[in-house]
Amino acid sequence: MLNPYLPKIAKIKKIKPESTDAKLFTLEFVNKSDRADFCFIHGQFLMMGLIGFGEAAFDICSSTVKLDTFELAVRKVGTLTEKLHQLKVDDLVTIRGPFGNGLDPKVYKGKDLLLIGGGCGFITMRSFVADYLANKLPVNKLDVFYGCLNEASLFFKDEYSRWQKKTSLSIALDKPSPKWQGVKGVVTNLFNDSQDFSNTIALIVGPPVMYRFVIDELKKRGMVDSNIYVSLERRMYCGVGVCQHCAIGPYYVCKDGPVFCWQQLKDIPNAI
Predict the structure, then answer these.
(1) Which residue from 46, 192, 202, 40 is spatially nearest to 127, judged by alpha carbons?
(2) Does the predicted model carry a pTM greater than 0.90?
(3) Residue 69: its pLDDT value, please?
């Protein structure tokens, strides 16, 4: 039986700057059996750490089908992530997981899927897009809404031209430069009255302040609570429900989530 407390060792294969404060790490398990056993569902997370500095939760942002390596995007926001940003190719990190419940493919199979990401919440969306581009995501259509601060903060921007060949990617910047020709303002500015979400499943990932506003826009366009999903990935702590810091109502986010149907959460105070 897999021991969820026992970390595995992974080697850094590639490091790529993603934004002003984030890097994309391509990782490979050192042990070949760990590579062979690795699988995950979109929306699940891993605990990555450094011995002597602790660990933290990071969303997996690579394909679910190309698993020789996997990718995690890391923003520099504290002591651990600052140390991770100092690492180089071939350095080693610890990995536990994957943990939690992602978005079950049965939920969106045969439907349209709308991904709505805000800020670093957009990291989660990349794994869906990767599978969709590889014809491995069982949806009719994939639409992606992305709200971000400015051009310098955008994740995966060198991939957008490839994404847009098959997906509909819409971006809103809150404080863009004068050169920005796209939508200005918050992510809800990407909604319009011509959109039809009657056969759509939505997943929202981002800062808590955006959730209520986005949900309101979806419901104005006829989407019911049971078709709206949210990720509470910002509440991740130990990953296994022991520390109880992630508890909301009857749920432990790291075990029962981080992806929840809005119908489960809507009546729980301070759930988002």
Answers:
(1) 40
(2) yes
(3) 96
